[in-house]
Amino acid sequence: MGTSYLFHGGRVLDPRRDALIDGIEVLVEGDRIKEVADRPISAELASRVDLRGRTLMPGLIDAHVHLLLAEVNLHLLEGVPLTLLAAKGAASAKAMLMRGFTTVRDTGGADFGMKQAFDMGLFEGPRLFISGMPISQTGGHGDFR
Fold this sequence. Notes:
Blueprint: E1 4-8, E2 11-14, E3 19-22, E4 25-29, E5 32-37, E6 47-50, E7 55-56, E8 60-65, H1 82-98, E9 101-106, H2 112-119, E10 127-130
Parallel strand pairs: 1-6, 2-7, 8-9, 9-10
Antiparallel strand pairs: 1-4, 2-3, 4-5
């Protein structure tokens, strides 16, 4: 089961109802939301987190990121070791998680090995979906001729 947390006392953003709701409790066990209720939740072993004055919200999703492409001018990345790009990408992913992004889709740059590293817990970051190699039109930003 892992660690359990019971969030209480604050407001919860419900995007389905487009509303901030008071009096909601949320029980998280491990990496899963176990229960959401408008009444007290019984969870004696859970660590209680008081949210008074705060708002709890669902994780954000960014559907267009390039974890390994830290430069707008891609020519500046020529000759940069792949291991350095991966390390910078891992740091960027952790920063995204700390800003509330729990899922990201890398639309070109990160490969399956990067996804495996996140899935294995080698790097801390959001859930990562990859599309593989980027595509570009002739003369576009990905055309290095």
